[in-house]
Amino acid sequence: MLNAESSFGPCTLPEFAPFSDIPVAQIPDNCLEDYLDSRLTRHEVIGLTAADEALAESGWCEAGLPGDDVGIFAGVGAAGMLEAEQWYRRARSNGDFTGAIESLRGYPASALADTIAERTGFAAVRSSVATACSSGSAALGLAAQAITTGRCKAALVVGSEALNVLTTAGFASLKSVDMEGCRPFDLDRKGIVLGEGAGALFLESEDTARDRGAPAWGYLAGWGWAADCHHMSAPHPEGLGAVRAIRQALDKAGLSPDNVGYVNMHGTGTKLNDTAETKAMKTVFGEHAESMSFSSTKSMTGHCLGAAGAVESVITLLALRNGVVPPTAGLLTLDPDCDLDYTPNRAKSAPDLTCAINNVMAFGGNVVALAFGKCES
Amino acid sequence: MTRPRACITGLGYLGPFGVSVDALRHGLANPAPAFRLHDLPEMCEPPRQAVLGLAPDFRKEAAFFLPPAMRRRMNRHSRMACVAAGQALRHAGLLDSADPEDSPAEGCGVVYGTALGSTGQCGAFFDDFLEKGPRFVNPALFLETVPNAPAGQISILYGLAGPNATICCQTVSAEAAIIAALDLLDAGMAPAVVVVTAEELSPALLCGIQSLKMLRHELEEPGRITIDRTIIPAEGACAMILEDESHARKRGASILAHVQDAVMHGPGTFDATCPHVEASMTRVTQDILGDRPKPDGVVLNGGFFIHSDPLAWRTLSKKLDTGTPVIIPDYCSGNPLGAGLVRTIAAALWLDGTRPKTARLEGELPLSFNLASFFQHHAPQPETILTASPATGDGAAAILLSKDR
Fold it and tell me: What letter would DSSP give residue B170?
């Protein structure tokens, strides 16, 4: 990511043969081989892989909490659609209804959270959020509130998405896929590249983390959630939902716009999203926007849909921790309507970065903004 | 945990009982089966009949709440959710402003609960894909395949600019949605939240449930309920307005009930065929009641499922006073899957003066009984009601409601 590398290419899954010309950001098979459990769906395997890494990073093995104190919040998109659509295709095309239990078990959006609970024994509040592209961020916000209100002392938040045929065919039919790769804010951009992946974050109160001597990667200072009330698939042209959500996040964090140094934007690479979101940034941050850094890391990860918010939260925390703003890849000719510093093609050092925002905008017009702060120690 | 008092100020219902809250009220007072033996879609494997609780024709209500262009574009699942949400907003007096810029609903949020989401739309889109090929699918069908389509449509239709959530937790999706809504109110992110749940028995969904061998193919003698290894699924949508009490009082809204608390969790295991119902139900009951007095009434989930219902009944029988009045609306309508907000709505109606016929919580749940003899009592007007449901696989959820004083 620091070198603005992306790994877009044709999907090697056999179901994707009809889409061999469509680039995607696919997880290499060798990254998932620790979980060759045929009972699990691809999206569960991807989510568990990230969840295990987050638990290890949180010092869970050394000093965990009782399972009854830990909640699970999953952010999902199409969940186990890949396996379900294989069964459905067999049933519809050949009248072969066998294997329903195995194929459909992971279809409900709740499957990932249930599987994580089964593996970890985490038994406090459990919720699966399915708000399309904002699921991962919404799950993180709801987890934070659950900790604040005492429903749990800590929460494992996982956003996960696996490539599937239905979603690929859908975005292809909308002519929203850029066959040359995702190029947010570029004059010649033509849309998204679908990705798969997972982001996992172990969230706990500062006191709990301190008591168990856990390493802190950063803190969630505030969050906001608002709706555009405009259109199912197009953002409000002025980015009204994003304006409300970011202002709410800053307000809850007790921060002013001037405190923010970096925004990880939704930046899908579609004409409508990138211009509307840019307008929202200029409305919220005013003149300060000129001295801030922005980027869309979807230019490298692809659009991970239900996982995007969690994946980009991890990236935003890394930016704060390492003092490095990740770039927007593939940005060669800036769109005049997108006139911010999107950190084109090269990461940049930002040692003074103390506050960053992750903004996501989803189908249905819902927008979630998360304000993250840097941990000094 | 301390929180601003949350209250219920509006209700909406569309399901096997009818297309209004009054229809639900009537169904609770006069328990009778609203499920029937229906033909299954041709795409299902045989036998092609099953006992289902279907929603009645609601075109008239849809025409009332939805502009024609929006109605045409929206799938049935979203239309059901929008109608129920509109009923609840109207009931709460949140649709009365003539000036949309000054709408009292403007800052309200939406929390939508569903177990399985837009299965009908996913099936229709995939059928289009199989029929026409990957390059010629209808893009209009794609937009509403996402699970959060109904929540988005509700926000656009009624101009609700607050948080817009979709929560999927199988049979306890409604309780999980209420918990999310309470937390959003606590966080001050909205003064009121429309909590909506919906489930549609679409051809694709019925095809899947049928292949899981979970449907019933024969209707027993009228009014007889049997608990076994299959379910009677139902469809429909329910909605309620959950509002910060100070906001409701300030605008002079009628308060139907208060939500005292809501809890949800599980033992950290998952077994769809043999869930840990007793452990989960014991824990949620203990957690939600704590030192509080035992409730005057119970609304319980009815899954018709032998690994769930008798265990939930037995647990509550042990934990609560013998003879506590209990209603199980699902035994009349069919099990609403993720649209279980009907439990909380039934509790709110009961607290607000509806007099349902009740069973009495004691001993073991009979595995076969007649509705008329099971629900035959009239209980005194309750002050508090506990709604409870085991979750699919494991876990449980409960909501505690009280009367407005």
Answer: G
